[in-house]
Write a structure and sequence with these properties.
Layout lengths: L1 H22 L1 H7 L6 H23 L2 H26 L1
Length: 89
Amino acid sequence: MILTVLYFAFPLLMLIIAGYLVYFRHELKVWLNLEDTKIIKALISAFFSMGLVGLFLTTLKYETLFIIWMILAILLTGVLTFIFVKLMK
């Protein structure tokens, strides 16, 4: 039951995060004291592409590949969170 909910919610969540990053990228640039928005654009493309791949796997009902994708997406989110924490220091 819970895995069925994650099948649809997790890829959409990654697309929503990419949308928020697009919307707030200039505020993040100021908040993180960045010279340009290259790192934020890279984060946007990473979240957006992972979300699209997740939706593609959900649509085709590849359960094994989707579980592998979820593990990789969790690792990607952890790495990107680590990058944000390092940028804030």
